[in-house]
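Glucose-fructose oxidoreductase
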Amino acid sequence: MEKISRRSFVNKFGIGVSASVIATSIPSFLSAAEPEHIPYNGKKINLALCGLGIYANIVAESMQGSEYCNLAGIVTGTPSKAIKWKEKYNIPDKNIYNYENFDEIIKNKDIDMVYVILPNSMHKDFVIRSAKAGKHVITEKPMAIDVKECEEMIKACNDNKVQLALGYRLHYEPTHLEIKRLGQEKVFGQVRYIESLGYKTYDTIAKKPVDINSPANWRLNKKLSGGGPLMDLGIYCIQVSRYILGEEPISVTAQFGTINDKNRFSETEESISWQMVFPSGAMANGNTSCGYNIDRTYASADYGSFELSPGLSYGPYEGKTSKGPLKFPPIKQQQKQLDEISKVLLANKKLPDHITGEEGLKDIKIINAIYKAAETGKKIIL
Ligand code: NAD
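Structure:
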């Protein structure tokens, strides 16, 4: 019997609706007929996680079962974490480093790539040290705290002939791939207006405030974070606007919001709003805050609209278009990201532009312009 995948079902029956609608309305017997997955048993990329905080734990859990990437090493400044991780993930002593002896990783042929998951201002140092050790490197968002740092990181990776990727997990997430398609393929015509808002201060699953707002958190220390919620989650709002439109902003204006908690927000903003203008004339409004829970992206196009809420946190995402629901089954985002990056490296190919250091640099340029606009009250031309 002929195997029917979602794609062939659509081609065969010529359904003229978006994939998003199909994703929710396709009969369940067809889902079972997805093309058979052929397991990969070849060489994996051996990864060392650098920094073992909250997000590194999420990455480590998510990548269990990855076909293309293996958690082979760790880099930590906390000896007790080294013991815990060694046991939990079966990591050999020879693949465990601290921040001081990290450069010795150059001699370790068992590690192919380092994933830097440290406070923002530490990304540059560890990316450059990884590059000099001949390791491919992924760095978390935001890439660094300013343009100069990003340029130095890109140069170090180029000079040492290693590849630099950004930890942009949403670039592999089906709901986000779909809104990118809806926007860039002009499924509802030209997108004219985007609103993207993000921050989460209260964890509705754990039923407690999110730790990022604790006074001791490095995110409130400008030297370590480079800025407040704009650096942390606002970057996703910028990203989503850029990939829905497939354009780069030409100017920004911005305004800092009220500071309600002067003790915590003495160095970084508590909230910020910004407006970006794109070459097509499209406008994108963004807002991010540590003071309230928002997680929403909305795009208005000539003949319709699409939106996600929640749409930027870890999911599952809920969405709709003017034609119907927009929802895909949740995936292990970090595993998918690492698998896709690893596949490219294993094939000795170049990483796609949208997740490289150049992409991270573009976001930092926009973030810097937004801060400048908020500080000066002037429109900043990019
Ligand atoms: P975290 O505070 O939980 O972890 C930071 C780690 O850095 C800890 O292991 C800590 O011990 C170590 N560290 C080393 N030197 C430090 C110093 N001087 N001060 C504070 N910590 C120090 O932070 P996190 O939430 O894991 O964030 C780490 C990075 O990951 C950040 O760049 C953040 O933006 C990024 N992140 C990305 C996502 C995503 O979805 N892609 C989600 C969360 C965090």
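The chain is about 35% helix and 20% strand.
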